Task: inverse folding
């Protein structure tokens, strides 16, 4: 499993330049928002947590098709399927690799981008915490979507349609933590719910993703 | 004699052929009775005026939007466990009907909400959840369309239906947490109202009877459409199989 993880990480960093792409997308979305809504700082302060969450979510979505597509094309996915590693393990490692290459940079970059949107003082910590807790769920759910559409020629758009409704609960609780944190309210309830979603999804969804992948490899 | 006999497509089509006229006629009778009764022979509400009458479309459609998804969930489970093709096709047949019901519920709600709440749309939990449910229907149907191999499509959509159900339920509670609502609570069936102790918050019997009839009409309509569409799916698949056999011969 560790070998697979290091292989995926190495591929993501060295080949194709997919590594920084999500991060660049996140930056551009954040920069575009003030052009869209106007430069009033109090308005930006109010919408900053939500915008940053949506930006991170979209950046995550953008890179999902890379999880399986390349391995599917060159046949290494078939090799992995016949390897002694159980499919659930492969799927979990893929999700972890996606999180490390996409989710983690987003989490680290988000506070810096918060400055651009004039995020309120206590919001930085809670934005960081909520993204750190929430992005793993985005990766795991996204892996399910990627596994569903892996065999399709133009699956990208379809995958967005399938994955985005599944992102709703994570986005609601994640953005709520960031918003309440920025306004100085109590964050415990949404924070616990967000953690619950992340851990529950990480524990259960790999089984569904593995089942779907097995069907697609049949 | 067991229910699994109807997993045989031939038997299913034969039974559906017998049932379909009856169910259709009963659905039409119930719908016409319920809607005409509701629209023309009930008094106007003293505060809502005539707009109250949209309840005869709105409530049954919303009910069927959820029930159609539950039926798809059940059919998907049967397909995964017992691999009966009729079950998978029934789930496929029900999806567009459920999506249509969701749209009817949303649109009639907007038409009612304009004069009553003063807005076409509010980010109220119930409204939002229905919108999300509609997105789930869209994704489900899109996945069916996208995959060429029938069995693969049935497998993948079944799993999507199961996972989607969990997330739809999760979204429901998440959305409730996210925003407090404008939509009134259920007033059609309520514990105190059935025994007659709580009359203030319950729909009056004058409105309830036609609502019940039109609700039954919607259930029968759904049943008739599912039977018809499943038959169509089975026949379409059979004709494709026959064509393929002819080409290869």
Result:
């Amino acid at each position: 499993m560790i070998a697979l993880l290091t292989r995926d990480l190495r591929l993501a960093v060295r080949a194709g330049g997919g590594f920084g792409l999500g991060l660049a997308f996140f930056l551009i979305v954040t920069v575009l928002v003030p052009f869209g809504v106007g430069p009033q700082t109090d308005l930006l302060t109010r919408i900053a947590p939500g915008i940053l969450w949506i930006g991170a979510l979209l950046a995550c979505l953008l890179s999902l098709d890379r999880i399986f597509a390349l391995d599917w094309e060159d046949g290494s996915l078939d090799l992995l399927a016949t390897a002694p590693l159980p499919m659930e393990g492969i799927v979990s490692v893929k999700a972890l690799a996606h999180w490390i290459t996409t989710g983690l940079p987003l989490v680290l970059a988000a506070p810096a981008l918060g400055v651009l949107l004039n995020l309120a003082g206590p919001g930085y910590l809670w934005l960081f915490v909520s993204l750190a807790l929430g992005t793993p769920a985005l990766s795991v759910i996204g892996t399910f979507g990627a596994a569903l559409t892996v065999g399709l020629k133009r699956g990208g758009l379809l995958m967005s349609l399938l994955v985005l409704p599944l992102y709703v609960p994570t986005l609601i609780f994640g953005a709520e933590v960031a918003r309440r944190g920025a306004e100085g309210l109590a964050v415990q309830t949404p924070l616990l719910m967000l953690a619950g979603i992340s851990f529950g999804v990480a524990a259960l969804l790999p089984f569904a993703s593995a089942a779907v992948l097995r069907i697609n490899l049949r | 004699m067991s229910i699994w006999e109807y997993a045989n497509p031939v038997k299913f089509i034969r039974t559906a052929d017998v049932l379909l006229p009856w169910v259709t006629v009963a659905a039409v009778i119930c719908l016409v009775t319920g809607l005409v009764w509701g629209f023309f022979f009930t008094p106007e509400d003293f505060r809502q005026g005539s707009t109250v009458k949209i309840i005869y479309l709105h409530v049954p459609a919303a009910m069927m939007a959820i029930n159609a998804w539950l039926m798809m969930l059940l059919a998907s489970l049967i397909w995964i466990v017992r691999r009966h093709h009729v079950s998978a096709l029934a789930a496929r047949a029900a999806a567009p009907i459920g999506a249509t019901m969701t749209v009817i519920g949303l649109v009639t709600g907007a038409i009612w909400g304009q004069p009553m709440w003063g807005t076409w749309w509010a980010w109220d939990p119930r409204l939002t959840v229905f919108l999300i449910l509609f997105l789930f229907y869209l994704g489900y149907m899109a996945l069916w369309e996208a995959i060429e191999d029938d069995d693969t499509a049935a497998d993948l959509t079944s799993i999507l239906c199961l996972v989607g159900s969990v997330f739809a339920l999760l979204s429901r509670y998440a959305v409730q947490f996210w925003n407090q609502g404008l939509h009134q609570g259920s007033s059609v069936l309520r514990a105190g109202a059935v025994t007659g102790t709580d009359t203030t918050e319950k729909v009056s019997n004058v409105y309830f009877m036609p609502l019940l009839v039109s609700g039954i009409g919607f259930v029968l309509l759904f049943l008739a459409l599912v039977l018809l569409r499943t038959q169509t799916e089975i026949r379409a698949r059979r004709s494709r199989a026959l064509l393929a056999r002819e080409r290869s011969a």
